Amino acid sequence: xxxxxxxxxxxxxxxxxxxxxxxxxxxxxxxxxxxxxxxxxxxxxxxxxxxxxxxxxxxxxxxxxxxxxxxxxxxxxxxxxxxxxxxxxxxxxxxxxxxxxxxxxxxxxxxxxxxxxxxxxxxxxxxxxxxxxxxxxxxxxxxxxxxxxxxxxxxxxxxxxxxxxxxxxxxxxxxxxxxxxxxxxxxxxxxxxxxxxxxxxxxxxxxxxxxxxxxxxxxxxxxxxxxxxxxxxxxxxxxxxxxxxxxxxxxxxxxxxxxxxxxxxxxxxxxxxxxxxxxxxxxxxxxxxxxxxxxxxxxxxxxxxxxxxxxxxxxxxxxxxxxxxxxxxxxxxxxxxxxxxxxxxxxxxxxxxxxxxxxxxxxxxxxxxxxxxxxxxxxxxxxxxxxxxxxxxxxxxxxxxxxxxxxxxxxxxxxxxxxxxxxxxxxxxxxxxxxxxxxxxxxxxxxxxxxxxxxxxxxxxxxxxxxxxxxxxxxxxxxxxxxxxxxxxxxxxxxxxxxxxxxxxxxxxxxxxxxxxxxxxxxxxxxxxxxxxxxxxxxxxxxxxxxxxxxxxxxxxxxxxxxxxxxxxxxxxxxxxxxxxxxxxxxxxxxxxxxxxxxxxxxxxxxxxxxxxxxxxxxxxxxxxxxxxxxxxxxxxxxxxxxxxxxxxxxxxxxxxxxxxxxxxxxxxxxxxxxxxxxxxxxxxxxxxxxxxxxxxxxxxxxxxxxxxxxxxxxxxxxxxxxxxxxxxxxxxxxxxxxxxxxxxxxxxxxxxxxxxxxxxxxxxxxxxxx
Amino acid sequence: xxxxxxxxxxxxxxxxxxxxxxxxxxxxxxxxxxxxxxxxxxxxxxxxxxxxxxxxxxxxxxxxxxxxxxxxxxxxxxxxxxxxxxxxxxxxxxxxxxxxxxxxxxxxxxxxxxxxxxxxxxxxxxxxxxxxxxxxxxxxxxxxxxxxxxxxxxxxxxxxxxxxxxxxxxxxxxxxxxxxxxxxxxxxxxxxxxxxxxxxxxxxxxxxxxxxxxxxxxxxxxxxxxxxxxxxxxxxxxxxxxxxxxxxxxxxxxxxxxxxxxxxxxxxxxxxxxxxxxxxxxxxxxxxxxxxxxxxxxxxxxxxxxxxxxxxxxxxxxxxxxxxxxxxxxxxxxxxxxxxxxxxxxxxxxxxxxxxxxxxxxxxxxxxxxxxxxxxxxxxxxxxxxxxxxxxxxxxxxxxxxxxxxxxxxxxxxxxxxxxxxxxxxxxxxxxxxxxxxxxxxxxxxxxxxxxxxxxxxxxxxxxxxxxxxxxxxxxxxxxxxxxxxxxxxxxxxxxxxxxxxxxxxxxxxxxxxxxxxxxxxxxxxxxxxxxxxxxxxx
Lengths: 771, 539
Prior knowledge:
The complex is a heterodimer.
Chain A: H1 18-22, E1 38-44, E2 50-56, H2 58-61, E3 66-71, E4 95-96, E5 102-108, H3 111-118, E6 122-127, H4 134-139, E7 153-161, H5 164-169, E8 173-181, E9 193-198, E10 204-208, H6 213-224, E11 231-234, H7 250-262, E12 266-269, H8 272-278, E13 285-293, E14 299-309, H9 317-326, E15 336-344, H10 360-376, H11 381-387, H12 406-416, H13 419-422, E16 430-440, E17 455-461, E18 467-471, H14 480-492, E19 499-503, H15 520-547, E20 554-557, E21 560-563, E22 571-572, H16 573-584, E23 588-593, E24 614-625, E25 632-642, H17 649-668, E26 698-704, H18 721-724, H19 726-738, H20 749-759, H21 761-768
Parallel strand pairs in A: 1-12, 10-11, 14-15, 18-19, 25-26
Antiparallel strand pairs in A: 1-5, 2-4, 2-6, 3-5, 7-15, 8-13, 9-10, 9-12, 13-14, 16-24, 17-18, 17-23, 20-21, 21-22, 24-25
Chain B: E1 32-35, H1 52-65, E2 69-71, H2 79-94, E3 100-106, H3 109-122, E4 127-133, H4 136-142, H5 146-163, E5 167-172, H6 179-191, E6 196-201, H7 208-224, E7 231-236, H8 243-252, E8 257-260, H9 274-283, H10 292-306, H11 319-323, H12 326-339, E9 355-361, E10 364-370, H13 376-383, E11 402-405, E12 408-411, E13 423-426, H14 439-446, H15 456-469, H16 475-481, H17 493-506, H18 535-538
Helix pairs in contact in B: 1-2, 1-10, 2-3, 3-5, 5-6, 7-8, 8-9, 14-17
């Protein structure tokens, strides 16, 4: 569209899909009810580590409400989201590796009967030794959770760039720090749900609240031994995911198998408690950092050692282990870098990707270290970051950077927060802190190696003037449907009311790899624009012929196509469609995106963390700390995020605010703790404290647009980057407020008080009001 | 809620039930039931003798329906009978089932000895139910003299006493026996230490009034002989279709134990069927009620074990009974009830486990049958298909299920549907779409105040109630009102903005419907014009 004022892209608009979603007109997975549908429940292991010696279903099957029972033996084929580490069975086959590991599934006429039946399944376990912490995983090698059964190691990555030891030796300042991040859960409001139908013609259809319908499709075929051509996967709208639904889970396989066994549709809905045990949340990490700098503020080297608690299975762990080091080298970094990360298996709910996969934890540690360096050399921490901004086109670990709005992000939060005037001058108990980060806009490669597109759309054009976008991407709340409609409407001059989006149905839509790694806007956006431009060319040619002008003189306006010099002969879009269809036949187009070849460093693992484009973020947080109670309140957060181009600014704001909210919650409230019996300390939304409307800070989201040359209209990601540095910004603000360095998350009142007392012994006496 | 069961006349409640006019219908005694399926039941030529595993399963099912006493067979019949009985006895004690065991014997020392062996092997006491023909026709056909009978009874009772087993004299064909013969047999039994007498309607000869007379006669006899502690059993057959009526009469007349068999299996046309027996005794308040599902499970198991089909029209457990929508049955009753002016009380479930409720739901008056345990959320989502109301935690933590009850926000996941009787429920589906788009729906979409949209219905209901009370709430008031509704996507800021915007739209300070799709869509197609036929066509 040539008239920029008429473009929808870049303008604040409505979501468009919310009213249908909330009134129940669009159905989420659990809203679907099929004739004769059975309800199933998973039976879960009560031990952290146990061999299953016997399963006796006699008492269960005696219940006339129970229709079928399956165990691991009914699904004896392994799966795993990463093709190199398939170590899970839908239902544990021989050994269960954590409290909550699924062991059997029971289908009954109703949910309550299925639930009651789970208590009557007689399972005999032989309890095995277990490891429930990083230390135990390191020490108790006899638990043998690793692939070789000789230790508990899941993945080890050691990478080195430059000469770290020499650089540290030559540094004026070398600081060391240890940090611990307990890990957190996604806690989407919609729990996992799947429905499977095995139709009379033998077609298996699975509806699932997944973020990765394509990978689910493949794993279903593998595990069930059913041709992928006889499986259809449909992903209805998802009620929140945040990475927690980005791999197949026991429920999808169990529902499918039960549907095949019983010949009836089967639904499985996880309870809130199951949600916490199915987990795949943020990994606990114990991180040790050594950072060197010269006294004029140039970072010299970073040496990182990270131990990662992976929980019971691999999940995305191979990637997590790389990400824990690879994603740190932007935006401010040193020219020498070494990291050593080891992921251990423990007998805890498996960890996986949560918003900011693998990189939120090290970001917390590293940005706290930068704050200490700045203090040590008496430099403004924003200035330190500016000075060490990675300006080159390539990072120390070989990642290509095509656009970079980092310095603008820093400048914008510096200005908006009144940093220069206010920092250090707010009085004791109130402070400002800064931190910054960068994140990927999609991974460069699909999870399973192939040369095919990573994202695709197909457009179908109707004579009525409606264009339907068949879109492989997964709408999980982030708004890809709205974005696709907006891009198509702009290219073709359509009203949003004339664009329909059909998403994530393997029978209707082309393959998209899923809603993970912040890939949607960049990859799907490009795919969508490519398809729409193909249609646009045909409309333009048809209109040019009618108006007897050159195609290059035709431009698209809202609702019309016009020609330069013949503005009063505007052709309505619908008429243009009729002209084009008359001339070219039925209109349709495909568009796809494939990332550029050979991104990343030329070393083993050098492609992991490589992305076609990186987003940049800077945060300033303002906090108050009550020294009597240890309560930290985040008053305000300024977050400047370089998303390349805000295609739908309302949605980008929503991603920034949602990310900051989630980060602040991890900083202050949330902690996914498994106790020494392998039990979650509070698997519900009362004990696991996600923020209420009274717990959130005022958030100022600031959009920075660096116009990436390869992004759709210049756009990059916005869904995960703005979370990262919110946590260290709070940590650094707490230091500014009361002079304590907190190295363990979350910053709960107890930890704050303990740190205050350690820092100032007199505070202890004051607090106790003692003599 | 409950009505007095002591009313002398008339229906027992406004529900219009003439079920029972028995002035004595406030039973104080607890009637026990004896399951004879594995003894008398097996005498039917139409049933298969189940495998031991099936018998074990049956015993558990008997326990599940609340059977008090189980006959574990006639051990003297064969060695298999001894083995099975011993195994069943062991199962009862191993599984700690609250069941007492009996076994049948002819009145011979050998038969009692077989029971003693079972008791030894099974490691628990077994009551000896020793039977002997008591009617003249039996004596005639068997050529037994009265003295012979007396001697047999005494010998068997003594054998039981020696083995330390309780003894019950079962007078076969009691309903056709003369009082004098019965008196003689009972006398020797009591003298020999019997603790109970079993009255039998072996060929389905008696009518309820006769049963009442017989029980009265026996009770008087026991009283007269100072044997008040001796208890009575009733064992009746179905030949004239009166077995159940007779059994209930016997229970009303004070018999302590009533016999029955699964599906009524037994000799000729069978025994009292256990399913209606238990169900009716429960209904009459003579014992705890048994759930229909447990009864159906029991009868299914029996049908499988005995290879005995369940009649399509069998009461309670037949296919017809099961497929009848229980709700419909009860709804008819509800309609009747509404005809009566007084709606003072609702009799609790007509059919067990269902309750009628009346709601005003989003402005519609509806009648609905629900289970006492059904939550309002389950009813809305799964029974009424109002899926806009969401389940996020199922325990009152997240607020996604918020609906309005009489205008106030409530968590439907922790509200029982039955508690909403006669109340007004408002769900998110009540919020109007175009052309009178609800300002909250309008504003939430405009501000992207929902992302995944899953918590949004709850937010909208809380906000609806808020705006009703505070047409122009401050940001702080909004924050506090929403503190029970968790959102995981937005960070809440957009939600605060949306509620503020909705308030302004309602107040006319902001225009509604800004940016709704459809402004630039093509116009509707023109109406078809009727054209005069052209000349070509006319030709």
